[in-house]
Specification:
- InterPro entries: PTrfase/Anion_transptr, PTS_EIIA_type-2_dom, PTS_Nitro_regul, PTS_SugarTrans_NitroReg.
- This is PTS system nitrogen regulatory protein IIA(Ntr).
- There is one protein chain.
- This protein has 148 residues and is of the alpha/beta class.
- The chain has a single domain, classed as Mannitol-specific EII, Chain A (3-Layer(aba) Sandwich).
- It has five helices and six strands.
- Strands 1, 2, 3, 4, 5 and 6 form a six-stranded mixed sheet that branches.
- The two termini are 13 Å apart.
């Protein structure tokens, strides 16, 4: 699975300043809405928040994989964000999170959604890649860290 097929450099932001789980999800919604025709920031944010209500997408080791399915779209999109300071995200290891890889997919692409999440989780489990992500100084370095 090629991450570049659903993550673009303009959906990658390094060292964002946010203070809460809700704010990071809203920020993800804001970025994604600029790349998905016909869906508002609020609709995207709501999809992500609805998924979080089922259980935290904080997978541990300072990483979260917020995700959701969207109606009325045919394109999968990802958003990669690091935060300047880790935030409380109710992760499974109770540790704060500073790496957020969000994935939004059309609601009829469940299998692709699961494959994409698995590919991202595998990539983020690589300690050298994760170190490059956490030490990236700008959006371009962050994008290169996850896609190379």
């Amino acid at each position: 699975m090629d991450i570049q097929s659903f993550l673009t450099q303009d959906c990658t932001e390094c060292a964002v300043t946010v203070s809460s789980k809700k704010r990071i999800i809203e920020h993800i919604g804001q970025i994604a809405s600029q790349h998905i025709d016909g869906l508002s920031e609020q609709e995207i944010t709501t999809a992500l928040l609805n998924r979080e209500r089922l259980g935290s997408t904080g997978i541990g080791n300072g990483i979260a994989l917020p995700h959701g399915r969207l109606a009325n779209t045919t394109t999968a999109i990802a958003v990669l964000i690091t935060t300047s300071n880790p935030i409380d995200y109710d992760a499974i290891d109770n540790q704060p999170v500073n790496v957020f890889f969000a994935l939004l997919v059309p609601e009829d692409q469940c299998n692709e959604h699961l494959k994409s999440l698995a590919a991202v989780a595998k990539k983020l489990s690589d300690k050298s890649i994760l170190k490059r992500i956490r030490t990236a100084q700008n959006n371009q370095e962050l994008y290169q860290a996850i896609t190379e």
